[in-house]
Structure formats: structure tokens, C-alpha cells
Hints:
This protein has helices at residues 10-22, 33-42, 59-69, 99-112, and strands at 2-6, 26-30, 47-51, 75-79, 91-94. It has 119 residues and is α/β, with parallel strands linked by helices. The chain has a single domain (2-112), classed as Response regulator (Rossmann fold, 3-Layer(aba) Sandwich), CATH 3.40.50. Helix 3 (59-69) links the parallel strand 3 (47-51) and strand 4 (75-79).
Amino acid sequence: MKVLIVDDDNMIREIMKKTLTAAGFDVTESGNGNDALRKLQSQRFDIVVTDNVMPRGGSAPIASYIRTEDPMLPLLVVSSGMSDAELETDNILYKPFKRQELIEAVRQTLEKAGRILPP
């Protein structure tokens, strides 16, 4: 399963990448929303995991693009709890989170979207 991780915090992005890679996911990284939109236009992903608030495009433009261009693509937003009322997402993972919670949230979001996970 191909995962696009979008987060402006290098350390959090690296932790998410290592965690999901170790769990068997194929991970692509992006450091901001604008770069993520370019990757979404040129590559196929099974799920997007994005930070809610980032410079140069947070989760809102990503959610808008997905809902318009690929509405079946699951979206998991990682949030500190601020500005959650209007999030367009399939699932939310609140910070701080444990590595296993990240894996479980990704799997739940994929399952909710009807994506078949490898054993």
C-alpha cells in the first residue's frame, strides 16, 4: 500500500515514515501542502496522512483536491486538536500519538474506505 505522508516537521515525518515502512507500507514524504499536491497529481497513493496545520498549505487544500480529483482516496489528518471543527477527513489521529496508534489509524482508515490490506 502506497502512503503519502505530509508534515512540515522533519522529525515527526521521519518517525511516521520509519513506523509505516516497518509495518509494510510503501511511503513517500512531503514537507508541505504545495509539494503534496504536486505528488498527488503525478503519482497514485492508497492513503494520504497529513498534518492539519502547515506553512505553504495545510490539510484543507489537500482535502479539497482529493474530494474533487480522487474522492475514493482515504485521508487521515494528524492534528494537535486545534481547528478540527471543519476538517474534511476520513479519520483523525491526535498528537501526541504512539507508533502503534499511527499504524492502527492508517489501517482503520484504509479499512473504512474498503481498501484491502495485505496480511
